[in-house]
Amino acid sequence: METLQGAASTHRYLNVAFVGEHASGKSTVAGHLMKLLSPSIRLKSTFGDDKVSQKFIYAALFDKLRTEREQGLTITFHEGYAQSDKTKFQFTDCPGYPKYFKNLIRGIQGAQVAVFVIDVNGACLEEYKDYVQDQLIACFHGGVRNLVVCVNRMDHRDVNWQREQYDEVAKGFKEMALKVGFKDDKIKAIIPISGWEGDNLTKISDRMKWYEGPTLLQALEQIEVNFPKEQNEKPFIMAIKARHKIGGIGTVACGVVLQGTVRPDMELYIEANGLRTVVRTIEAHYESIQEGKPGMSIGLALKNISRNDLRAGDVLTEITGPGGKVIQRRALSITATVVVVRNPFKNGIKKGICVITDLHTNHSAVKLEQLLEKRDKRSGKRIQADPEKVETGDALTCTITLPKTFSYNRTPFQCKTFKEFPSLGRFLVRDSAQIIGVGIINQIQYPQPR
Ligand SMILES: Nc1nc2c(ncn2[C@@H]2O[C@H](COP(=O)(O)OP(=O)(O)OP(=O)(O)O)[C@@H](O)[C@H]2O)c(=O)[nH]1
Ligand SMILES: [Mg+2]
Questions:
Q1: C-beta separation of 394 from 377 below 8 A
Q2: Does the beta carbon of 96 sit less than 6 angstroms from any atom of ligand 1?
Q3: Sign of dihedral through CA atoms 201, 202, 207, 208?
Q4: How distant is the alpha carbon of residue 384 from its chain centre?
């Protein structure tokens, strides 16, 4: 096992996602922490002709879109970088508004720890309960196993730095996280903070003497993330989170390394459309690096392709076959086991319904083609063959058809069976802003070779 470390760096890398219910203060906490770690960052009170309202001054470090600043809410995920004595942090500020849940799902991919910023007023246990539970499921099923919880707005005049309300919210949230599957020892800390005033972010606050620590920074520093070394030697695979065209550099694919090591001049192909490309340069944390390893969030400058050839949700794979041959395989359908966590349909979940799957960084509309078996959620024992419908709490084996027509003759998503490659073999089943179930892929059906 090894920790993630850049070749030229003595720091380790840590990828942190900020999540939580709407308007709990995620962007403010992320922005304030970044400002405390990098005092040279300037807080902007204007962007061109736009004035930033004083109360969004920290949030504006992350909320970079004009509409986000105007409305004071995050729409898509944004990244920021900072470093402490031993860690280089990548902070990903995710949206909390339920309508933008899909952007949160993409934002948390590759994170090693989720910082849950929840409001001390307890909205995460009442108004946003289902939604916060969905965020927990998305983190857990997406492979984010470490949690740091920040109970925010301790400065609020009704709370006035006292512990009663903090205790209540902390207890309720912990119960919810344990129920979703998080291990007690992976909930690293539940910290009372004020994102706005900065209490307990990097220094212990003397306004809450009843809390002994750790601070948010200490809690993040204590998290150890190790990656199995044998993953380094396998063929390189990266899931794309975002694509850019940058002047002087060209097409850049940003994403998370799922397996293997990437180096400059490596030949890759885009599985979705079979196009080939070559790595020009690699960047992490605004620094040029020579090797990208599993778990790292990197940017690859690519030769011979344009920005439009890539899509967030695609997968880049190393060309390894004999003679560097690329075989583009279009999956027709998958057989999967899905545990239903919620049933939003009046008549139950039946065959033929259209749902959205979130597989790593990919979102696709798919059809539930056939319900094969209803199984016991815990033992996996078959309860019923060919069920007509399933309800909340059932486990279901089903076939899911993938859409056939796509521009550029693309495959909708690149997947593997869960057994073969867990991170490309598990997915969420969603209906707009709510999770219906969590699934794993058992089998993939490809067309017969002609
Ligand atoms: N009093 C007080 N206000 C805060 C604190 N943290 C954030 N706020 C205010 O809460 C409002 C929302 O903050 P944001 O950081 O935009 O919240 P968010 O969670 O990023 O919101 P979404 O991304 O839209 O879900 C802003 O007006 C902040 O100034 C805090 O600790 N105390
Ligand atoms: Mg925000």
A1: yes
A2: yes
A3: positive
A4: 35
Out of 3.40.50.300, 3.30.70.670, 3.20.20.70, 1.10.1040.50, the CATH code matching 2-227 is 3.40.50.300
pLDDT digits (tens, 9 = 90+) for 22-63: 999 999 999 999 999 999 988 877 777 777 778 889 999 998
Nearest Cα to Cα of residue 82 among 219, 284, 285: 285
Q: Is the pTM of this model over 0.70?
A: yes
CA 419 / ligand 2 centre spacing (Å): 36
| Ligand 1 atom at minimal distance to the Cα of residue 56 | 29
Determine the 3-state secondary structure of 211 from DSSP.
coil
Give the alpha-carbon dihedral of 319, 324, 325, 331, to 10 degrees.
Answer: -10
Name 49's Cβ contacts closer than 8 Å, sequence gap at least 6. Answer: none
Q: What is the secondary structure of 248-304 as a DSSP string?
A: TTEEEEEEEEEES-B-TT-EEEETTT--EEEEEEEEETTEEES-B-TT-EEEEEEES
Which has the closest alpha carbon to 312: 247, 377, 240, 396? 240
Peptide bond into 98 cis (omega under 30): no
